[in-house]
Design brief:
Length: about 300
């Protein structure tokens, strides 16, 4: 059995990135943290921490870290079951809890555009938890749940992941946008065509991003594979379109100011792309995550469009 103080030291190091910050978080000396990690590594029989800037987990360290965080979550679940005071007992408790060092960390997978548009206000309504966010494409975020690396995920997959509950959230609307100068330069008076889209530079978030091709297939009957800029940032995606670097699919809410000011225009106004989103949460922490789930569903219904 692992010593809880050893597991806490490992979690603190990997969350904070250094032995020094972990010592400050735990209220002990740095040498005490080092000793606990040394004893834990001796017990496991392999290194757990890559001592770099910042510190990172080895493969074994990552497994032990997830185990440690799971224990913290299960402890909070037990406290709830026993009716003990918990920091996650709704908004009223947030004002009374003065020390967040005892809060468990919950790892969630979320797509970048949700993070940039509506997800953070939802987290702001849920107290008593520390959030460790993994950013991945909505078509792939559920894979993190399947591997047991996160406890909840926003995904485009409607079918529940095994061992999880699934709630529909709404659809995030995307518009194919570009600057007026870009449209004139690459598409001319006839506007965007499949041939023009094949020649013109487009914007791609990363290798998993298929939104541009999906939109072109819907709008013109076939996907588009053209020259591309690679920009793994939601805001940079908008800024790049405004600057005329390329055309791309942007969330309607993010480009609304640029559309209103005329800095961007929609390539095909009658053809938006709505991406349905679903909230998958592990049943192992379902009760602990109830305030988060409630907030996510409420904010999503306010900010997203109904799923068709």
């Amino acid at each position: 059995m692992f010593d809880p103080s050893h597991l806490a030291a490992l979690s603190a190091i990997l969350r904070s990135g250094s032995f020094e910050r972990a010592a400050s978080e735990l209220g002990v000396t740095q040498s005490a943290v080092s000793q606990r990690i040394r004893l834990l590594e001796e017990q496991v029989g392999t290194p757990l921490v890559i001592r770099a800037q910042p510190c990172r987990a080895t493969e074994a360290g990552g497994r032990v870290f997830r185990h440690a965080e799971e224990l913290r979550l299960r402890e909070q679940e037990l406290r709830l079951d026993l009716g003990m005071h918990s920091a996650i007992d709704g908004d009223a408790s947030i004002a009374t809890v003065k020390d967040a060092r005892g809060w468990p960390a919950v790892r969630l997978a979320v797509n970048a555009d949700s993070l940039a548009t509506w997800f953070l206000p939802a987290l702001g309504r849920a107290g008593g938890l520390l959030f460790d966010l993994v950013v991945d494409d909505q078509d792939h975020s559920a894979d993190w749940l399947k591997r047991g690396e996160v406890r909840a995920a926003i995904s485009s997959m409607a079918r529940p992941v095994q061992g999880c509950d699934c709630k529909p959230l709404g659809a995030l609307r995307y518009l194919a946008t570009a600057s007026p100068d870009f449209v004139r330069r690459w598409f001319g008076d006839e506007g965007a065509t499949t041939e023009g889209l094949m020649r013109a530079p487009m914007l791609t978030f990363n290798a998993k991003d298929r939104l541009q091709s999906r939109w072109a297939e819907r709008a013109y009957g076939r996907p588009v594979t053209g020259p591309s800029h690679w920009l793994p940032s939601s805001q940079a995606f908008v800024d790049a379109a405004v600057e005329g670097l390329g055309w791309g699919m942007n969330p309607e809410v993010l480009v609304a100011p640029a559309l209103e000011s005329g800095r961007l225009c929609v390539l095909k106004p009658d053809c938006p792309l709505d991406v349905p989103l679903y909230w998958h949460v592990s049943r192992s922490v379902e009760r602990l995550m109830t305030p988060v789930t409630k907030a996510v569903v409420e904010v999503a219904r306010q900010r997203l469009r109904p799923i068709a």
